Amino acid sequence: MPRYYRIPLGICNSYLITNNRQCILVDAGTVGREKQCIDALNRLGFDCSAIGLIVITHVHYDHVGSLRALKEACQCPVAVHQKEAHLLKSGEVVLPAGTNMTGKSLMMVGNMMLRIHPQFFSFSPVEAEITVTGEMSLEPFGISGSIIPTPGHTEGSLSIVLSTGEAFVGDLAINYLPFSLGPIFPPFADNADNLLESWKNLLDRGVIKIFPAHGGSFPAQKLREKMIKRSL
Ligand SMILES: [Zn+2]
Ligand SMILES: [Zn+2]
Separation of 93 CA from ligand 2 center, angstroms? Predict the structure, then answer.
């Protein structure tokens, strides 16, 4: 049975998923967090050589900031959706659209910051060995589960779904409000309709627990409640 651990790297959670011998890492945090990540791996009893794959849920600066350094330390392949492989390879920074007034306002500020201080969002380019186009089994990496495309936050967003019902979803869902008030509908997404379709896809697959990149885990049932509220 796979085991998993949250490794916060800056504002973004990375996750280690393991069968106790082989491991995969999901996302690579903000820039300069590689030592923090390796220290966390060591504390969990693993070294870099145990990492057989790094999966990038999508190419936003807060998920790929330490990717190149971690890839070099772990000497392992990287998987990303084919639709975002060119962004990763070129180091091109894109920001998502806002889905509500707060998100739209924050993105106006974000885009302004990107023009004035591009270094704040920059990351080292990485050429991915694996470009994902459809469901991809993780069995070759020792993990009982698969990578599935879950577009919405970005066109090439990916989730990792384990056979035991856990889903590691990147920014497909957000849960960073205090006092257990979340999850909230993501304030940032390129296509809100696709995002809801991806939630439905996860629920149809029988996912029971959601692990977002921002905030703590929560029962997948909460996505269904959010979907019902939005449709009323
Ligand atoms: Zn994102
Ligand atoms: Zn993010």
Answer: 13
